[in-house]
Design brief:
It comes from Pedobacter psychrodurus. Its cofactor is Ca(2+). InterPro entries: B-gal_small/dom_5, Bact_Beta-galactosidase, Beta-gal/glucu_dom_sf, Gal_mutarotase_sf_dom, Galactose-bd-like_sf, GH, GH-type_carb-bd, Glyco_hydro_2. One of its GO terms (molecular function) is carbohydrate binding. This is beta-galactosidase. The protein is mainly beta. It has 5 domains: about 170 residues, Jelly Rolls; about 100 residues, Immunoglobulins (Immunoglobulin-like), CATH 2.60.40; about 190 residues, TIM Barrel (Alpha-Beta Barrel), CATH 3.20.20; about 100 residues, Immunoglobulin-like, CATH 2.60.40.10; about 260 residues, Beta-galactosidase, Chain A, domain 5 (Distorted Sandwich), CATH 2.70.98.10. The protein is built from 9 helices and 65 strands. A 9-stranded antiparallel sheet has the order 51-52-53-54-65-61-60-57-58, with helices on one face. Strands 30-29-28-27-26-35-34 form a 7-stranded parallel sheet. A 6-stranded antiparallel sheet has the order 4-3-6-12-9-10, with no helix packed on it. Strand 48 and strand 49 form a beta hairpin. Helix 3 runs parallel beside helix 4 and helix 7 packs parallel to helix 8. The protein starts with a helix and ends in a 24-residue tail after the last strand.
């Protein structure tokens, strides 16, 4: 038995000996911010400087409590010029004898000097975001410890590097921020592989090698590591160091953002029948083609890119990230129905590109150069390092040479020469290469550039987010224009996440450098802002035409398939009918609809077989899921209108009579324990009181963008009801106010009014209520996120309970959804005070609820966002304001951002705006509904 076991081991060893040697890696550092290794460290200036200690690698030293923080716009001469000295001792495996050994740095900021056992490994590397390596075979000792010494200078001695990387609109960090490892290769080895796998199955490859070999063998593996197609070999002519390979594979599954099918291709060098070195690459078969004055085609399909700009960033670790973070970022982008991402403004971690390959995102990879450029020798070296590391990722379909003027044109030819795939080259912010990529153009920009231009329109930055402005605000107008413009290839939003960094020198404060960093759709730790859901709906690849739930509705929805490669019969559709006034155990019915056969870019019909009693429910929810089973969006459709709720909720009759008295100044009315005081001259509500005391809701209605010319009030009994009403006069009192007090104590307010201007920002009625008194609200309407005039999508109809918070978008504590702001389609609202609560109900559609005035975050000097709010504290609006972006005022983001127009000044009562509200000031604690309804979720869960 023992002999057999030894023989078995020998066979394994013999079998292993004939297999090709792999490139081996030995990490000297950790692999990301979730796995680090401590090195000895000395910082020359700033916090914790002047002493030897230790630091995790990889990391940015500022986030570890060393040196000085500085944002790129900071022009202080001596700011951020510290150096970091690193030491680390390592051993070399004995089996690496007679092999080539490289030390590899995936990223180091900025100038990096490397010594092994006291000797320079090579010239100082300049440039922060690029993988570089040194051959240290002759410097290492196999039999004993080896000393690695690294000096990293945050500020480069090469001024062009500082211009390209440091004088930029982002945080500037220092340190070895990406992994460091040793790689071991046989003396004869593959040095570089370039692959171009086309959609027709043709695989072209270019292979460079060092040493002596007879041939190269190529194999392709698909799912479950099964070989796909035939193995093929190519002989190597003596003296040749570069091979060009070609092979035709039959019908491979293609790679796209919708179906990211990957293959593994393996290249093996063979000498005298022995496998010497083997390298594998993940690839995808896909073809990228730019057709002049037409568009960008992937696998023969014209694309619309729904993209975002993304920094390599995490608040607690700066530019040091991890594969876990890459996965989270890409999943969030996919959740927003994005299909593209631009690397801003430098190449990312390799694992981010791996995740884009595997999960499916088109990538624009970028050579750094924010507004300045690398000099040509430095840029040439760095561009080749970027290409060598990134070139085989199928997700990369564009290269970008710098950003916004940071284009060294002397480097352009290198992209064509170095890239076997000949991917298109972009100059972001320029008209270049047949692309118009100008940033932050107004919606109605330039006859010769956008709507009536001849270049492919693809802004690499548009709708510059800041605080709550931009992103979702304006995107619907922009996207409608982009979708319908044949020359539009879509565009990229700025940007993905708020750049808020943990200040170790300020007790862990999250710092966005004022208004420079809060530009994200999500917060620094991926907190979802309201714009997240707006983008998710606007960019849904299933477009659902608006439908009203009238008695004649037959359960059919018109759909448009905005996928590029997916038939809607590969998706899933689910529906739910729900009653919203019966609490958590609300009655509902749910089902699935057959997915219709609708090809990409076609329209068709989805049929839901609704039960016969569907109109007995309050709302219909329709969910579309992609081929991966994940939600694209859930649309909500109210069935019962506000008037129906009013009829159920408002109690008019009572056992007591309505009593009133008046003096020269006020009307005092009482009914069923409710005491109301109205100003006799203005008609405004002055006080509401019940047996518990005064409810501090008063001083209304005050017209916003209208004149409170209510006059000549009269009081009379109308049956059991008391009516206080003003008199209409076309010249002096054309706005009218009418109060009706019912025996139940309920109060009805009717206002008919005319706006005071042709163009107005908002219009509605204001009341006073002390913000310090509010505890929460519970309302029926769209939520849970607030809206703007130019950001109406992304909400859902339901009943929402919102506790008070004073959150400002993009600022600590990044608590969402915010409390203060506008909410659309209010049916009713219960205002829950610290002392007392009261209820407001409307029988009108499309009423906006305004809750107080959010903090106005510090805008730029141009004050473009203009997040304006009415006077007073609580408002009921017929029209609300829009919000701008960092670079555009609201009205330049499209029609939805423009002011309201009410042009009929005839002052006829039938032409007036109309607002009707019912108020319940009683002490009753019974809610208007029996529980808490949250965002509908077909998994059975509830999420706020």
């Amino acid at each position: 038995m023992k002999t057999r076991f030894i023989l078995f081991l020998c066979l394994i060893m013999m079998f292993g000996a004939v297999k090709a040697q792999q490139t081996e890696k030995l990490y000297l550092s950790g692999t990301g911010n979730d796995h680090t290794i401590n090195w000895d460290f000395f910082c020359t200036a700033g916090t914790n400087s002047g002493k030897w200690t230790s630091i995790p690698v990889p990391s940015n030293w500022e986030l570890q409590g060393f040196g000085k923080y500085n944002y790129g716009f900071n022009k202080e001469e001596n700011k951020g010029k510290e150096q970091g000295l690193y030491k680390y001792t390592f051993k070399i495996p004995a089996r690496w004898k007679n092999r080539k050994i490289n030390i590899v740095f995936e990223g180091s900021m900025t100038d990096t000097e490397v010594k092994i056992n006291g000797k320079l490994a090579g010239e100082i590397h300049q440039g922060s975001f690029y993988v570089f390596r040194y051959d240290i075979s002759k410097l290492i000792k196999l039999s004993s410890d080896n000393l690695l010494e690294v000096k990293v200078s945050k500020h480069s001695v090469n001024q062009s590097v500082n211009e390209a990387e440091r004088k930029a609109d982002f945080w500037i960090f220092g340190g070895i921020f990406r992994p460091v490892y040793l790689e071991s290769l046989p003396q004869t080895h593959i040095d570089r592989i370039q692959v171009d796998a086309k959609a027709d199955g043709n695989l072209n490859a270019q292979l460079a090698y060092i040493g002596d070999a007879d041939k190269v063998e190529v194999e392709l593996f698909g799912k479950d590591e099964k070989r796909f197609g035939d193995r093929f070999t190519s002989p190597i002519k003596k003296g040749t160091k570069k091979l060009i390979l070609n092979h035709q594979f039959a019908k491979p599954e293609l790679w796209s953002s919708e179906f990211p099918n990957l293959y593994k291709v393996t290249f093996t060098l063979i000498k005298n029948g022995k496998e010497i070195h083997q390298v594998s690459k993940k690839i995808g078969f896909r073809t990228v083609e730019v057709k002049e004055r037409d568009g960008v085609y992937v696998n023969g399909v014209k694309m619309k890119f729904k993209g975002v700009n993304r920094h390599s960033f995490y608040p607690s670790s700066g530019r040091t990230t991890s594969k876990k973070i890459s996965i989270a970022d890409v999943l969030l982008m996919k959740e927003m129905n994005m299909n593209a991402v631009r690397m801003s403004h430098y190449p990312p971690d390799g694992h981010f590109l791996d995740v884009c390959d595997s999960l499916g995102l088109f990538v624009m990879d970028e050579l750094a150069g924010w507004h300045g450029t690398y000099d040509t020798p430095t840029g040439t070296k760095l561009m080749k390092e970027m290409m060598l590391n990134d070139e085989n990722h199928p997700s990369i379909i564009f290269w970008a040479n710098g950003n916004e003027g940071g284009h060294n044109r002397e480097l352009d030819h290198l992209f064509v020469e170095e890239d076997i795939q000949k991917r298109p080259l972009i100059h972001p912010w320029e008209v270049f290469g047949g692309f118009e990529t100008t940033h932050y153009r107004e919606f109605n920009y330039g006859i010769g550039n956008y709507d009536h231009g001849h270049n492919i329109l693809m802004p690499t930055e548009f709708l510059h987010g800041m605080w709550d402005g931009g992103h979702g605000a304006g995107i619907e107008d922009y996207w409608n224009a982009m979708w319908n413009n044949p020359l539009s290839a879509g565009g990229f939003l700025w940007d993905f996440a708020d750049q808020a960094v943990v200040r170790t020198d300020k007790n862990g404060e999250l710092d966005t450098d004022g208004n420079h960093g809060p530009d994200g759709i999500v917060g620094p730790y991926h907190e979802k802002e309201g714009s997240f859901f707006t983008i998710k709906e606007v960019w849904s690849p299933v477009f659902v035409e608006k439908r009203e739930m009238t008695p004649g509705f037959d359960g059919s929805f018109l759909l448009e398939n905005r996928y590029a490669f997916t038939n809607l019969n590969q998706c899933a559709f689910e529906w739910k009918l729900k009653k919203l006034n019966a609490g958590d155990d609300a009655e509902f019915k749910a089902g699935k609809a057959d997915a219709p056969n609708i090809k990409p870019f076609d329209k068709g019909k989805l049929q839901i077989n609704l039960p016969t009693d569907w109109r007995n429910f309050d709302a219909l929810y329709l969910t579309a899921k992609g081929p991966d089973g994940k939600e694209l969006f859930t649309w909500s459709f109210p069935i019962a209108l506000p008037a129906a709720d009013t009829e159920k909720i408002v109690v008019k009759t009572g056992s007591t009579k309505v009593n009133f008295k008046e003096d020269a100044k006020v009307y005092q009315v009482s009914a069923n324990g409710i005491d109301l005081t109205f100003n006799k001259i203005t008609g405004l509500l002055q006080q509401a009181k019940n047996p518990k005391g005064v409810i501090p809701f008063s001083n209304g209605p005050i017209l916003q963008e209208g004149v409170n010319n209510f006059k000549n009030f009269t009081i009379k009994m109308d049956g059991e009801n008391l009516v206080i009403s003003s008199k209409f006069d076309k010249k002096e009192s054309f706005n009218t106010l009418k109060w009706t007090i019912y025996p139940s104590g309920w109060l009805k307010m009717e206002v008919k009014y005319f706006p005071s201007a042709y163009f107005i920002t908002f219009v509605g009625l204001n009341f006073s209520y002390p913000e310090a008194e509010i505890k929460a609200v519970e309302y029926k309407g769209n939520g849970p996120y607030r809206v703007w005039k130019n950001r109406m999508k992304g909400t859902q109809f339901g009943i929402w309970k919102k506790d008070y918070n004073n959150s400002a978008t993009g600022e600590t504590p990044w608590q969402y959804p915010e409390f203060k702001g506008y909410y659309s389609n209010m049916y009713w609202c219960e205002f829950i005070g610290k002392q007392q609560s009261f209820k407001v109900v409307t029988d009108k559609e499309d009423v906006f609820l305004r809750l107080f005035t959010p903090k106005k975050s510090k805008d730029t000097e141009w004050d473009n966002m203009s997040p304006t709010f009415p006077n007073g504290d609580i408002s009921f609006m017929n029209g609300i304001s829009a919000i701008g972006t960092k670079t555009q005022k609201p009205e330049t983001t499209g029609p939805m951002g423009m002011k309201h127009v009410f042009y009929d000044f005839e002052k006829e009562p039938g032409r007036a705006l109309d607002m009707t509200l019912y108020f319940d000031f009683s002490t009753s604690t019974s809610s208007l509904r029996g529980g808490t309804t949250a965002r509908p979720d077909f998994s059975g869960k509830q999420s706020p």
